[in-house]
Structures are given as structure tokens and as C-alpha cells.
Amino acid sequence: MSAFLAILLTILKVTGIVLLCIIGLLLFVLLIVLFVPIRYKADGFYKDSDYNVKAKASWLLHVVTVSFDLKASKEPVIKVFGIKLKGKKKKDEEEGETAEETTEDVTKEAKEETKEEAVEKIKEESTDEQFSEETAKDEEDKRSEKKDKRSKDKKEFKSESVYDKIKGYVDIIKSDEFKESFALVKKQLCRLLKAILPRKWEINASLGFEDPSLTGYVCAVSGAMYMWFRKHIHIVGDFDEEKIDAKAYFKGRIYIVVLVYVFLRVWFNKKIRHTIELFR
């Protein structure tokens, strides 16, 4: 009996250790997904009708990378541990080749059919088409009658309740519940934008238009924004020749935990859900 209990305890001990290891591994993976950021960067230029855009995003020390080059290929390139995944084009080409082979086989089989069978099929199709046309006409008449009834009902409903609906929406907007939910959504949107927008970015441009007044207007607007974007935007006006020479660069990171936090705060808020139901 004591030996049986010892074996049972060892089995429970091993299963407990295995379960704890699995739970710990799952928690570790979850923490990595939530707290390891997705890093992204992109740059582009435009000069003398020549342009290009390059972008790249990576996660977990470049274990997963997504790159895009407008000139090289119009589809993003996804790599996992440096291994390139197949894109849609290659899959479509392979499927197209197999489809062509199957269509060739089908056409060969179809040519082997006799003329008498083809004539019989044409007769059967003609009778089916006549029957289908008659049934389709009846269905169209029924649908048109239903549409007329619905349009009449909608016109009567709109004429009676448009003013009441507008008044109800105004009352909802004036309520304290809507103001509190709007303030919460605004706060969470600001947090979301702060988490998504690039931390480093820069735009350098030399602009010259056919109309010098337009060039002066662009320079005036950039000068007005100099206080806020002096470290990021540098625009120089060229009044001698018409040209657009621009370069842009930005870099940032996204934490998944921030996105999840914002979603949960907004989705599970009772006041926000109640205001949405009121608008519906």
C-alpha cells in the first residue's frame, strides 16, 4: 500500500511540474507578445519625377520581419527566422498552372462527346430557360410590389419621426453620460496615437512652382509651423526654377500592451456601450 501511494505521489508530482512548466511557458510567450515592441521605419524620396518608398517592420530581434520596396516589388516580403514566406502571386501561378492542366483535360473529354448528346442538351437547356424566365418574371413582380410597400412605409415613418429622432440625438449629446464617455474616448485615442505615431521623423524639401506666389505661400505656411516642427520639417523655397525635391524619414515602435489596454478600457465601459445603444 505504501509503495502504491509513493508511485501515485510521484505521478502527481511529475504532472504538476509539467503543468507548471506549460503555464509558465504560456505566460512567458504572452509577456513577450505584449511587452516586446514592433519596431518600424520607412523612408522615401521624390526628385525629377523619380520616386521610391521603402518600409520595414520587425519584431523580437528581427525574428519576424516585413519589408516593402515600391520599385522592387509592389507586395510586402515576410520573413520568419530569415526564411521568406511564399507570396500570393506564386501561389496563384501554381494554382493557375494546375487549373490550365485540368481545363485541357476537360476540353479533351468534352470533344469526345457525340453530336446527338449535344443536341439533346441544347433542347433541355432551352426548355429550362423558358421555365426559368417565367418564374423570374413572377418573382420580379412580387419583389417590385414589396419594394413599393416598403418605400411607402419608409416615407410615412420618416415624415413622422425625423424631428423626434433629431431631438433625441440632441438630448443624448447634451447628457452627462455622453460627455463622460466622449472624454474617455478622447483620452484613450490620444494615448493610442501617442503609442502608434513615430518617435523620430524628418522631412526635407526644396520646392519651386511655376507661380512664385504659390512658392511664397508654401514658405509662409512652413514658417508659421516652425515653432512646433522646427526639428522635423525643413522646407526651402526655390523661386528660380520649378522643381520638387523631397525626402522623408520616420521611425517608431508599437507596444501591443497599449493597444490591448485601450481596447479593453473602451469596449468594457458601460457608459460608452449604453450611449452607442442609444444612438442605434
Annotate the secondary structure layout:
Elements: H1 2-35, E1 38-47, E2 50-59, E3 64-69, E4 73-80, E5 83-84, H2 88-111, H3 115-174, H4 176-196, E6 200-208, H5 212-224, H6 226-229, E7 233-237, E8 243-254, H7 256-267, H8 270-279
Parallel strand pairs: 6-7
Antiparallel strand pairs: 1-2, 1-8, 2-3, 3-4, 4-5, 6-8
Helix pairs in contact: 4-7
Categorize the overall geometry.
extended
Helix content: 55-70%
Task: State the separation between the terminal residues, measured CA to CA.
Answer: 68 Å
Largest sheet: 8 strands, mixed
Low-confidence runs: none
Mean pLDDT: 81
Q: Helix tally?
A: 8
**Compute the gyration radius: what is it?**
33 Å
Strand content: 15-25%
> What kind of assembly state do the chains in view correspond to?
single chain
Q: How many strand elements?
A: 8
Strand adjacency order, main sheet: 5-4-3-2-1-8-6-7
The H-and-E topology, N to C, reads as HEEEEEHHHEHHEEHH
Protein structure class:
alpha+beta
Q: How would you characterize the overall build of this protein?
A:
Among the domains are: 113-172; 176-279, no CATH class. A hairpin with a 2-residue loop joins β1 and β2. By secondary structure, the protein is of the alpha+beta class. The model has no long low-confidence stretch (mean pLDDT 81). The N and C termini lie far apart (68 Å). The longest helix is centred in the middle third of the chain and has 60 residues, at 115-174. 64% of the residues lie in helices and 22% in strands. Strands 5-4-3-2-1-8-6-7 form an eight-stranded mixed beta sheet. The chain is built from eight helices and eight strands; from the N terminus they run αβββββαααβααββαα. It is extended. The chain has helices at 2-35, 88-111, 115-174, 176-196, 212-224, 226-229, 256-267, 270-279, and strands at residues 38-47, 50-59, 64-69, 73-80, 83-84, 200-208, 233-237, 243-254.
